Amino acid sequence: MGHLTMSVKERERAKVLERVSRGEMTLKEAADMTGVSYWQMKRLRKRFEKDGDQGLVHRGRGKAGNRGYKEVSVIM
To answer: Is the pTM for the entire model greater than 0.85?
Structure first.
């Protein structure tokens, strides 16, 4: 099992979704607590139930940005 890098915001969402899955709070309460809409929280819960913590990690993490320069090979 490898390491998983999560931001503070992603980790907080995971903790809140754990409470939702245990029935300690509703999705509406979780959405208000994390500052996202009810529908976004439904999408997050679906990904969290399917993929666990990995489902909450930003999918662009670790990839090169679109605005970067192409790698140039120099022939000598």
So the answer is: no
Q: What is the 3-state secondary structure (H, E, C) of the chain?
A: CCCCCCCHHHHHHHHHHHHHHCCCCCHHHHHHHHCCCHHHHHHHHHHHHHHHHHHHCCCCCCCCCCCCCCCCCCCC
Nearest to 56 by CA among 12, 3, 25: 12
Lowest mean pLDDT among 38-42, 44-48, 58-62: 58-62
- Determine the longest span between alpha carbons in the chain, in angstroms: 65
Tokens of 14: 């995971």
Residues in the chain: 76
